[in-house]
Amino acid sequence: MTTSIRIGIVGYGNLGRGVERSLALNPDMELVGVFTRRDPESVTAVDAGTRVRGIEALDGERGDIDVLILCGGSKSDLPEQTPALASAFSVVDSFDTHARIPEHFDAVDAAAKAAGTTAVISTGWDPGLFSLQRLYGEAILPQGETYTFWGRGLSQGHSDAIRRVPGVAGGVQYTIPSDDAIARVRAGERPGLSTREKHTRECFVVLEDGADADAVREAIVTMPDYFEPYDTTVAFITAEELARDHAGAPHGGFVIRSGTTSLGSSQAKGSSQAKGSSQAKGTSQSIEFRLALESNPEFTASVLVAYARAAARLAASGDHGAKTPFDIAPGLLSPKSASQLRAELL
Questions:
Q1: DSSP alpha helix (H) spans, the chain
Q2: Among 123, 174, 205, 281, which residue's beta carbon has the most beta carbons within 10 A?
Q3: How far is CA 77 from the centre of its chain?
């Protein structure tokens, strides 16, 4: 009989609840419990039978958990939690501040290697699945350009960053892609697009009593990595409007690689192809990967759960240290055996 992979959830917001729901759909996994910094009595789990304990209770769980799935925010939670918890457990996180992934990897790798654990970082759909599509596109079409468009949708990480601004009682952020930019890329133009030309960011914020709206807006639009590179608007709304109009969490996007797979006649040695023919400009190819998500946190959670399976397998084989989706064979994500995958999916 196959032993279930024992999972702990650290943090219990939208992402943590999504992980609990996803685990219920994966029969090779079992949820040991939820671990939170909040008062456990104040947390109501999706399943009434799920145990909820304080994060300090993890000290007594080292032999009972195979992988911790970390569901905190990338702005301030995961930079501290992932290396700290990788010192005792194998972990998976969804750290999504792209510019800081290299330093996050180094910190987690040092902790995991010292402890003999396996830590998979920056899983989800971007970084994560979109990262893989960018890699595949560049490897398959080395002569070309890659374009990533996000949205229209609610960003978990950026919304979390807004809520941590002093004076903010609540808020969400939507990423909106440029329809014109997408159309130009799909037409094979390969335009040079700046960050601002590809997306805008739209924020809806509930202020704390007495907060300075201008100071809050300035703190948001100038936030490095998150909002400063984009044209960002901030609208102030009531808590009632936030609950009524922004309770859902849709998202999605595209990765498009446009390239050529043959040299033009002016480039090919000894070519006799007539100038101006289709061969002269190469053979045009395009790869497109699309996600359309009704629930961003539930989908991200489902990716985390699949990578938790891979983390457990790598840890059991003695392959320790930090990993990213680039380092993990696709077969490790599936509950099926290698022979089943060859027979059913290859």
A1: 14-23, 78-86, 101-115, 129-140, 156-163, 179-186, 195-198, 213-221, 239-245, 296-316, 338-344
A2: 123
A3: 15
Structure letter (DSSP) for residue 2: P
Which residues face 33 on adjacent strands? 8
Cα–Cα distance measured from residue 238 to residue 234, given in angstroms and rounded to the nearest whole number: 13
CA angle 263-145-135, nearest 5°?
A: 105
Contact 295/21 with Cβ under 8 angstroms?
A: no
Which two three-digit tokens encode residue 209? Answer: 């009593």
* pLDDT tens figures, 183-206: 999 988 899 999 899 999 999 999
Cβ neighbours around 279 below 10 Å, total:
16
Q: How far apart are CA 122 and CA 70, in angstroms?
A: 11
Residues across the chain? 346
3-state secondary structure of 178: coil
Exposed/middle/buried for residue 56 (C-beta within 10 Å: 0-12, 13-18, 19+): exposed
What tokens were used for 36?
């939170």
Q: How far is CA 308 from CA 20, 27, 70, 219, 291, in A?
A: 13, 14, 10, 35, 21
How far apart are alpha carbons 46 and 89 in whole angstroms?
24
pTM (predicted TM-score): 0.85
